[in-house]
Amino acid sequence: MRATFSLIRREFAAYFTGPIGYAALFAFLVLTGLLFNLALGLLTERGPRGLEYPMQALLGGLDSPDTARVAGVLFWGLFPAVTGIITSRLIAEERGTGTLEALLTAPIRDWQVVLAKFVACFAFYVLMWATTLVYVPVLADLHCIWNFAITPFSVMLLVGTVLWVLAKVAFWFEWNGWLLLALGVLGPALAITGGYLHATRDEVKFVEIVAGIDPRPVLTSYLGVLLAGAMFLALGLLVSSWVKSQLVAWMLSLLLGLLFVLPAYLRWQFDSSSVVYPALYYVSVPEHFRRDFTRGVIDTRPLVLYVSVTLACLLLTVRSLEARRLR
User: Fold this and answer.
1) Measured between alpha carbons, how far is 152 from 169 in angstroms, rounded to an integer?
2) Mapped to the 3 state alphabet, what secondary structure does 248-259 carry?
3) Among candidate residues 5, 115, 121, 136, the one with its CA nearest the CA of residue 59
4) Which of 3, 122, 135, 194 has a Cα-to-Cα distance from 170 of 20 to 30 A?
5) Which residues contact 118 (CB under 8 A, 6 or more apart)?
6) CB atoms within 10 A of CB 2
């Protein structure tokens, strides 16, 4: 597996040595920043224009007002474009520069190549969404309640913390080694013990983190974002193994990704009791977020869709590389 980890590091680092990674990150930050500004504006309004589920605004799942509806179309229209940018270079660039043959003749299996490239692009995707965590305290109305209470356990925590800081100072000034060892062991031990006993035996907590808005929709929304993103990335990786041009790979990834987006905007053309309506819902990723994930609901049907499509695309990518090896 050492070769696999080396390939993962190489592919992940490539996002920061070329323009593709920065372009995807810039487009994503601009898009999510505009949506966060929209959510913030709706959170401060009252009446029918208020916002019940803040994550719906951030993930483009609102049907009203008109600006929110336009923002939703923009978000899900650009979502497969951003994932396509991330995956367009993975294999298409290797084919275009002629390095894919050298990679396939290396002592590494095809499934390891596909796995390494997928893990690298998924790690970059997670990094992009990690930047949006700064919005969560506002969207969930998180705030801290500080309770200063002097107990034997809180004194242990305070003394242990001070000793640990002294250990850091002793390390920097190269004090006596035995003193450094004693402070480094005794300080964290007292701090951990005092903090644990204070948290379990005292009713008063140092800090209480309180959410003014139910935080469960935040957790389910990020779960859906990760699984849906894995599906779009696997689809883009498969397309990248078919062509040599990164531009063509991006365009095909965008078109195939829209197959999971456009049905959400066609559902109004069919009656909810018809057979077509539930079929459209099953493949409509924006609808999954509007009705389920952003409301704190986990429906197993979208999860099955995301996982099955991801695994199928990765398997087909492996077969595509195997077919090229046999030529």
Assistant:
1) 26
2) HHHHHHHHHHHC
3) 136
4) 194
5) 233, 234, 237, 314
6) 7
- pLDDT tens digits for range 60-110: 766 655 666 677 777 888 888 889 889 888 887 777 776 766 666 667 788
Exposure string of 269-308, with b = 16+ CB inside 10 Å and e = fewer, is: eeeeeeeebeebbebbbbbbbbbbbbbbeebeebbebbee
Say if CB 287 and CB 267 are below 8 A apart: yes
Q: Report the first-to-last Cα separation within the chain, whole angstroms.
A: 27
CA 212 vs CA 48, 189, 209, 222, 298: distances in Å: 20, 35, 10, 19, 22
Domain boundaries, the chain: 2-143+211-325, 148-205
- List, for residues 184-238, the tens digit of each pLDDT value: 667 667 666 766 665 565 555 555 666 666 778 888 989 999 999 999 999 999 9
- Give dist(CA 102, CA 83) in Å, integer: 27
Q: Are 245 and 92 in contact (CB under 8 A)?
A: yes
Place of tokens 């275009």: 96
